[in-house]
Give the backbone structure.
Amino acid sequence: MKINDLFIKSPLAPLCQRGVFTKTMDLKVNIGKLKLKNPVMTASGTFAYGKEYSEFVDLNKLGAIVVKGISLKPMKGNPGPRICETPCGMLNAIGLQNVGLKGFLKQQLPYLKKLRTKIIVNVLGNSIDEYIELAGDLESAGVDAVELNVSCPNVKKGGILFGTEPGLFRELIRNVRLKTSVPLITKLSPNVTDVRIFAKIAEDEGSDAVSLINTISGMSIDIRTRRPRLANITGGLSGPAIRPVAVRMVWECHKTVRIPIIGIGGIISAEDAVEFFLAGASAVAVGTGNFINPRATMDILEGIRSFMSSEGIASISELTGAVRC
Ligand SMILES: Cc1cc2nc3c(=O)[nH]c(=O)nc-3n(C[C@H](O)[C@H](O)[C@H](O)COP(=O)(O)O)c2cc1C
């Protein structure tokens, strides 16, 4: 049964249709110090710098925009092919292409700051100092929050990924927290044995929230050419194929930490978003869903409203962690 069918059949439907319920419904969520008007955000790297989607989406209606990962210097990314479709998902190896910090502050941020939504900047560095510099400069520039993309190699430590080695992960968050006071969201990698260890470290070291999951490492081979479908050989899997993994990880983290969780992974409908709330997310971010339907965020927001009406839910926070296990 679809959300809309529920809406029509619910005894609350007449109330909802007159807008009685929708007016009093509370979609506001707090992600640490960050106050969002609703829980629907965009996932980094799938919504460009926001402006590109303005033709399809009323950007002011979003809970927050999370922009493409920004590094200190501009990055060209990997050579193509950089994406390929897989069952219920896609693999990407974009290679963190971006305009760099200066380019972002000059060309993108002025537009974003005029919007009536929160602006969160995903950052990526190859050393702890780079992350500190990025977070500090973005804080001074007035962004609402910084999301740490920890799926980057530390060049000083022989290329170990920040997000998969607990000691390095702790050192990174501790140092960024000490040097900046911008709301900090740590984006967790699913490519670890126990994601709870990383969520707990993020909380202990002062992260205001965690977002999860980033893409799952994968590979696809064309059997006729016997070549990998991506020039980079491996890439990150995203889309509905990864949703059950993401929901499980959100549920595990919700039982482990008290900081808010932003659920990410294969969300393409309001039903998917509700599943993440029930598992323990306070907000959700839509990624690959934007490629399937550029208006996905708006449709999901409307669908969440309809669901709340039909279920008689006054505040979105009632759903967080409400799974009956
Ligand atoms: C093309 C593409 C680019 C991405 N770029 C970034 C990025 O720059 N930084 C980041 O933290 N995550 C990045 N991601 C990961 C997404 O933000 C998201 O965590 C992941 O795709 C899972 O969500 P989804 O299944 O809804 O896409 C990217 C994903 C895709 C598909």
